[in-house]
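Quick start: read one record
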Amino acid sequence: MSTHAVTLRPRELRSHGTAAPSVLPGTGEAPHLWLVRTDEFRTRARQQAAAVLDRSEQERADRFRLPADRDTYLSAHVGLRLLLGAYLRTEPAKVALTRLPCPLCPEPHGRPAVEGNPVHFSLSHSDGLGLLAFAASPVGVDIEQVPPPEVAEEVGRSLHPREWDELRGYPTPERPEAFARTWARKEAYLKGLGTGLGRDAALDYVGTSAAPAALPGWTISDVEVDEARTAAAVAVRN
């Protein structure tokens, strides 16, 4: 069953000025969403990466072969640290990040978290854009580029059977966009759970239409990022 379509709009993190959000969202409030555009933020990210990112983040950035991908990673992760520092009123480099246990196994590769702090956050980046969410309860966010038709067709088969049936009902030119919308919702939800794609994408129905389907205990919303051929979504536990 679908709810009324509610599309959320993120604030943009700019290269000039200090990130100064007031307070973290309270219980039951909508998550705070922030958009980081690599083209606008890359210079600041390069300048501050060594000062604010931890060793593991810097090593991962160095593994990107393409400079554009490295800049998008740096922009999103530097932005995350600046925002967490502003929310928690501490220096960004002093924010100690960790991973929670995975719900599917005992390994520590579940949702990212701040050690000893109840703030919940999620990050996604794709093709020059980073999307970040902060909430009072577990949250997941995802941003996707609309794929070529053959990719939407192939990966679409791994969705919930109802979603796959719905996709096949769209006119052929509209299927990639409908797929991206669905996949962003699903990844946001799975990130919120902390499983990621370790949980079968066919298990949960989030819907392909303009309004996300309701999932028990969770609110899923599409996110408007003002970019053509891009889909984004956020999922927060009620």
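The mean pLDDT is 91.
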